[in-house]
Amino acid sequence: RTENLRGMGALRGTHADIAPKAVGAEIEAMISVHLRQHTREEVASFRQHLMTLPEVVQLYHVAGSTDFLVHLWARDSSHLRELAIDQFTSRPEVARIETGLIFEHTANHELPNLKVK
Whole-prediction pTM value? Predict the structure, then answer.
């Protein structure tokens, strides 16, 4: 099945499902980022910055009132606060952020077949 998915160009890679607490992350959060401007340069610069942060688990560039959704792990609330201030709100690209704590995260690993028949 894996080779078939690779051959179709559907399999982009594989990953390990890591338990956050096993690596010292007591808090998971989702940060909504609202940029000041939406130039290609600002979007690219902020995306590149986020990808250098080891706490960032997933990054979504989205349409709507939010520009980025950032799923991250933090040691504790102090670490989350430091990240918010030092790595988000202090950036010139960022107008504002909203932070939401994740109480539970569940993923569906079933493969949908959305091709029209």
Answer: 0.82
